[in-house]
Amino acid sequence: AQSVTQPDIHITVSEGASLELRCNYSYGATPYLFWYVQSPGQGLQLLLKYFSGDTLVQGIKGFEAEFKRSQSSFNLRKPSVHWSDAAEYFCAVGALFSGNTPLVFGKGTRLSVIA
Amino acid sequence: DSGVTQTPKHLITATGQRVTLRCSPRSGDLSVYWYQQSLDQGLQFLIQYYNGEERAKGNILERFSAQQFPDLHSELNLSSLELGDSALYFCASSDKGGDGYTFGSGTRLTVV
Questions:
Q1: DSSP H or E stretch at residue A67
Q2: Could you list the pLDDT tens digit for every one of the 112 residues in chain B?
Q3: At B87, phi and psi to the nearest 5?
C-alpha cells in the first residue's frame, strides 16, 4: 500500500537559516510527488511537483525538492527561510499515468521560524 | 482565491444531527476529492468523484455520503454526527492527476 512518511512533526529554524524537510514514500507504481503548504486557517497550496526528468525541481516561494529514487525520498529545501514560511508542510504521492487517483498525504511537518 | 469554493466556512452542530458541505470545483476540473483533516489522523482521503461518477473511496464512514452533480459541484453529507467528526473538511479538484490538486479553504465542522 502506498504511504508517505514525514519523520519530523515539528521543526524550528532561525530566520535566514537553511531548511530541509524530509519525506519518504512507499509506492508500487511510478510516483508523482508533491509538496503542499498550509498556512493557519487556510487550504493547501501547491509548492512544487515531480513527474520525471530532472530530479531537482523548483517551486514557488524559493523552495526546491530533490527526488532520490534509491532512497525513496523527496526532501524539500530552502536556502534561506523567511518568517512568512512558518506553516504546515505536506508531502504527497500519487500514481503517474493512472490519472485522477487520490493523492496520499504525509501527516505534515510544522515549521516554526524564530528571529 | 484558489478557484475551489467551499461553503460554509464554519459549522457548529449538535451530536446526532446531519449537515451538508458544499464544494464548487475550479472551472474546467472534472474531479472532486474530499479529505478530512484532524489533528491525530492528518489528511484522510474520503471519496473522489469524476464527472459525476464515484471513482474512488477511502476511509469514509457509512454515515457519510457524497455526490457530484451535473454542474460538477459536489456535496458531502454527514449524518448522525458524533463528537469525533469534528474536523476540517477539504475539497480539492483536478483536471488530471498529474497536475496536483487545487484545494478549497475548507469547512471547519464542530460537533458539540
A1: strand A64-68
A2: 789 999 999 999 999 999 999 999 999 899 999 999 998 778 999 999 999 999 999 989 999 999 999 999 999 999 999 999 999 999 999 886 556 789 999 999 999 9
A3: -175, 175
CB contact under 8 A, B97 and A90: no
Where does residue A40 fall: left (phi above 0), alpha (psi -120 to 50 degrees), or beta otherwise? beta
**Cβ–Cβ gap B4/A43 under 8 Å:** yes
Instruction: Give which of B98, B96, B76 is closest to B26, Cα–Cα.
Output: B96
B4 touches chain A (CB under 8 A): yes
Q: Which one of B4, B98, B100 has the shortest CB-CB distance to A46? A: B100
End-to-end CA distance of chain B: 30
Closest chain A residue to the Cα of B42, Cα to Cα: A107
Residues in B 46-105 with any Cβ partner in A closer than 8 A: 48, 50, 55-56, 58, 90, 92, 94, 96-105
Nearest 5°: the CA angle B93, B94, B99 is 140
